[in-house]
C-alpha cells in the first residue's frame, strides 16, 4: 500500500476537494491516507491563492516537506496551482501540479509521474462545464461534514481570482446532494455545512429552473435524522426572503450566516465590481436581523483596496459598527496577478493597510465579545466536536449561532448536548455540560 498525506490551505471548498482526492485514491485500493506529520510516499498540498500571503504559505509548506522528506513525491493542486502552475512546478520536490478540473484524475496522473521530473496536468478551467460529483461519505478529522453543492463563479469582482481558478458557476444535481446528506447522517454526522463558491447561484445552470438554493435546502432538511444544517457563506444579492424564512422557521437550520460586504464605501464597491450597492446590503442585513434574532453574523472586508481613502475606510468602519455583525474577517488588500484590479496598482501604503486591518480586528473582537456576553447564563445546544481543538485535550463545540464553547475533559463524541454558558474566554465562552432531558 502506498501512503498519501494531505496538507490543505484555504476555505471549506478546499477541504471538500481534499476529501474528494482522498476518496478517489482510497477507492483505487492501493492508497492509504496517513496523517500529515507521518512518513508518506506522496504529499498532496491543496493550495489557496486568495492573497499573496496564501501563496507564500503554500510555497513554505512545499519547501518544508521537501526538506524533511526529500524522497517523497509532492503534488501541488488547488487555486494557486491552477493560477500559476509553472511557478509551483519550479519548486524543488514538486513532481506533479494538478489543476482544478483535473482532480478527478488524481490517481491516474500520479501514476504518470517520473522521479526527478515535473508533470503539469492543468486543463483550462474556463472550459469546465459540469460539476465533478464524487460521492463522499466521510470527512477525515471533522465532526461537521461539508457538502459542496456548487463550484465556480459568474461574477467578476475586480480583486478576486477565483473565477479564473475555479471557472464559471456549475451546480450539482439536487438528488446527489440529498443522497450524500443521507449517507453522511447515516455515518453519524450531526451537522451538515452547505458550501460552494457562490451558493446563491445554485441551480441557475440546471434544466429545472425552480430548483434554486431554497428548494435544495428544503430537500436537505427533509433528510431523516438530520440534526443541524448550516450555510457557509452567501452573497447579499442572493440572500432571499425565502432563505431567511427557512432559517427563522426550522430550528435545525443554524442561526448563522456569513455575508461578505468587502467595503462600506459606494465608490470602492463600484471599483471592486461588486454587484450591489450599500443600500441593498444594509436592507438585506436588516431583514436578516429582524427575522432571525441572535443570529451569528459574519462578513469579509478588504482594507486598502486601490484608491481607498481614509474617508472611504471611515464609512466602512462606521457601517460595520452600526450593523449587527458578530465577527468580521478583515484582510489587507494584495494584488492578485491576473485579476481585473491588477492594473489599478496598489497605492495604499502597507502600514496604512495594516492600521486599517488592525482597527477592524479590534472592532470584530469588541462585537464578538458583546454578542457572547449577551448569551452568558443561558443554556444552549452545543455540537461537541470529536477532535480536540488546537491539540488541547479539552472538549470544545459550537452553538448553532457560532459561539465557540470550551468544555472540560470528557468523553469525545460528536453530539448535540445542552450546555450552560458560564464565562467568557478570549474567543468564545466556557461552558458546563448538562444532562440531556
Ligand atoms: Fe482560497 Fe481558492 Fe478557497 S483562492 S479561499 S482556496 S476558492
Structure description:
By secondary structure, the protein is α/β, with parallel strands linked by helices. Helix content is 33%, strand content 22%. The strands form 4 sheets. It has a 6-stranded parallel β-sheet with strand order 2-1-3-4-5-6, with helices on both faces. A 5-stranded mixed beta barrel has the order 14-15-16-18-17. The radius of gyration is 22 Å and the shape is globular. It starts with a strand and ends with a strand. The mean pLDDT is 94. Residues 10-11, 13-14, 48-50, 78-79, 162, 165-166 line the site of FE3-S4 cluster.
List bound small molecules: FE3-S4 cluster
Could you give the distance between the termini?
A: 47 Å
Q: Could you describe the largest sheet, including whether it forms a barrel?
A: 6 strands, parallel
- What would you call the shape? globular
Protein structure class: alpha/beta
Average pLDDT confidence is 94
Level of helix content?
25-40%
Q: How many distinct beta strands?
A: 18
Specify the number of helices: 13
Q: What spatial order of strands do you see in the largest sheet?
A: 2-1-3-4-5-6
Strand content bin: 15-25%
Radius of gyration: 22 Å
Uncertain stretches: none
